[in-house]
Amino acid sequence: MSIFNRRSLLYVPGNTEKMMEKSLSLESDGIIFDLEDAVSLTEKEFARENVAKFLSSMTSSPKEFIVRINPLNTYFGIEDLLEIVKQQPDAIIIPKAELKSLITVDEMLNTLEPNANIELGSIKLIPLIETVKGVNQINQILENSERIIGVHLGGEDLTNELGVNRTKKVMRYFLQEVN
Question: CB count, 10 Å around CB of 20?
Fold first, then answer.
């Protein structure tokens, strides 16, 4: 298992090869290749192929490579997971994470990793909590899988769902839900 500093993570749209190449020279500890919000609907498949190609060309790097896939309740999310696992990223961010989606991803990885000759448990997970249900399930989510190496809180989607403005006070409230 690789150990990475995670002081800074750089989000890079998966559909921009030039930015992906440039990200290697920047002083971030890790790169998050984004297949979700940073990519338009018409570019989703291209972005997935682009990130897969980029990851397959990497032999070694001191940087942590993380891929944010699309939500699993979409066609793109399932296809992202099936393709990206083959390239063995260090971690995958699961957007709109709720207990059910996390269990699904964990079960899929338990099959996909051995099928791709990847050591079981190698690919780690970072749930992205963006729904009220995800906040309410956060402790169950974090206890559910040994693959989890961190958690992100998606404030924009969460506050939009609630119809409130995103403020430090509101975000602090959600962070207090983690025991």
Answer: 19
Mean pLDDT to the nearest integer, 27-38: 95
Separation CA 179–CA 176 (nearest Å)? 7
Q: In the predicted model, what is the mean pLDDT of residues 149-169?
A: 89
Query: Which pLDDT tens digit goes with each residue over 95-147?
Result: 999 999 999 999 999 999 999 999 999 999 999 999 999 999 999 999 999 99
Q: β-strand 152-153 against 30-34: which pairing, if any?
A: unpaired
CA 33 to chain centre: 8
- Report CA dihedral (162, 166, 168, 171) to the nearest 10 degrees: 40
pTM: 0.92
Strand ranges inside the chain, DSSP E = 9-13, 30-34, 64-68, 91-94, 124-129, 152-153
The 8-class DSSP code of residue 148 comes to: B
| Mutual angle of helices 75-85 and 44-57, in 10-degree steps | 10
Q: Which of 12, 47, 5 is nearest to 26 (CA)?
A: 12
Length of the chain: 179
